[in-house]
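Annotated sample (chain length 265).
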Amino acid sequence: MNNKKGFTLTEMIVVLVILAVLAAFAIPTMLGYISSSQEKLCDITRLDMVRLYKTSLIGKEASASQSGFENFATDNWGSIPQCPAGGDYTYSVSLGADGKIIAEIQCSVHGSAHVLTAEEAAFPRQGGMKGVLGFGPPVSYYSGAATDIIIPKVLDGITVTGIWQEFFKNKGLTSVAFQSDSQLTRIHARAFQNNNLTEIKIPDSVVHIDVRAFYGNSITKITIGSGVIMEGDVFGDNNDFRNAYEASGSGAGTYLFVDGRWKKQ
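Output written by the structure step:
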């Protein structure tokens, strides 16, 4: 006697409805991850091209030109590279008053994230505070006009290890990214206070963030490494993020501000 039964039409409809609901949540999240990954890859690609181009012209900076930059990209990448999201790159090259190359690549999709230059960030080249942006002497602040910036691993041959107090305070920043292999270890007090940042990815190398480092921004997404020591009011008038971070065991990951609370993804 055969007792095997197939799915009824009702059961199949229920399964399809469940799958549709799951897809409605999963697909936007997946697309968001793809978009974020493409933007980060675009930033890193542009940063690497600028760094390698400037390195190739050490000792012959006067020969820098837009066409030379484009030819360099073609010779080293086989063709003019494109953004993974389909954006087109445009190249800008000039010489500063000190004879150093100022080079930048803009993307038609991801804007014109500006790579911080040594001229915009005085910092010590020796001593215990070597490589701390803005420490001086004398103490200085970000002097550039760009509001979407990339902070490189190395500036003028010196590894960037910290960002001094109030270096980027009140500068109208809308986005900040760090080179993927950044060696930044400390972000000092009020370093990014009172800007327009909505998300931040802290380099895994960072071990200490001082008081009010990101105070006065509307940040709703934070990606951070493990075991970071945070002082008071780093991201706002309270320590809600620090509490959520410590409650998770100070674990690395991405945290979202949802329904008035910080939650780890």
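Annotation: DSSP finds three helices and 16 strands in the chain.
Annotation: The mean pLDDT is 84.
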